[in-house]
Design goal:
Largest sheet: 7 strands, parallel
Helix content: 40-55%
Shape: globular
Strand order of the largest sheet: 3-2-1-4-5-6-7
Number of helices: 8
């Protein structure tokens, strides 16, 4: 793939201040896109955008809670100032309640995780489709192996990612009235802050040693590997790719 394969495309990346989202923001910007980095973390998100802008890339930060529809609407309005939206890469997600038995799982925790991971994906997709309209575009939803091909340490997380996968499946089959390509991307074990903490939580609950936790951390994949998949899917070269894409 050429280094300018996303030249001048307007791309939103939610959850863009850390992990896979951050790696995707940086890579898409390097490949010529005009990127809107959306995240709750204002200081980190703004710093990343400022650094990339100083390097000559077109990156804007917009603070956004994806579970709040009014904030998603504001995100799309801010994005429209850069031009028509071409690509949504929805990476925002949280994980709470690891190792908690279902009989002890707090309903508030379940609702919070589903609110960000499932409702947030729905809201971003809904308003992205409105913004793209008949001109079309690409929507990439980040799911997981959790809740799709395997279980999860958290009932809420696994349920939410199964919901994201389901949303993507429905959209893939119903976007015929718009030329919008939808892919659901399900990463495996990647060294994000979320996963690194999850490894600690699960390991400590199981009583494993600190050395074993460090070994498990070292075995995790680099977020840039998934970012490369997402950047490819955002490009015209992925026009023949359909359905769910599973990565390391």
């Amino acid at each position: 793939m050429t280094t300018d394969s996303l030249q001048d495309r307007v791309i939103i990346v939610t959850g863009g201040a850390s992990g896979i989202g951050r790696a995707t923001v940086e890579l898409c910007a390097q490949r010529g896109a005009r990127v809107v980095l959306a995240d709750l973390s204002q200081s980190e998100g703004a710093a990343i955008a400022d650094n990339l802008t100083a390097e000559g890339h077109a990156v804007r930060f917009v603070a956004c809670d994806v579970s709040d529809e009014s904030e998603v609407e504001n995100l799309l309005a801010a994005t429209s100032e850069l031009g028509r939206l071409n690509v949504l890469i929805a990476c925002a997600g949280i994980l709470h309640g690891a190792t908690v038995p279902i009989e002890d799982f707090e309903t508030a925790t379940f609702d919070r995780v589903l609110g960000v991971n499932a409702r947030g994906m729905f809201l971003c997709a809904k308003h992205a489709v409105r913004a793209m309209g008949e001109a079309g575009g690409v929507i990439l939803l980040l799911a997981s192996g959790a809740g799709v091909t395997s279980g999860s340490s958290s009932y809420a997380y696994g349920t939410s990612k199964g919901a994201v996968h389901g949303l993507g499946l429905v959209m893939q089959g119903r976007m015929g009235y718009y030329p919008i390509r939808v892919n659901t991307v399900a990463p495996g074990s990647i060294a994000t802050a979320l996963k690194l903490q999850n490894v600690i939580d699960v390991g400590q609950a199981a009583g494993v040693s600190d050395d074993e936790i460090r070994r498990r951390h070292a075995a995790l994949g680099d977020p840039i590997g998934v970012a490369r998949v997402l950047a490819f899917l955002a490009s015209d070269e992925a026009d023949y790719v359909r359905g769910t894409v599973f990565t390391r």
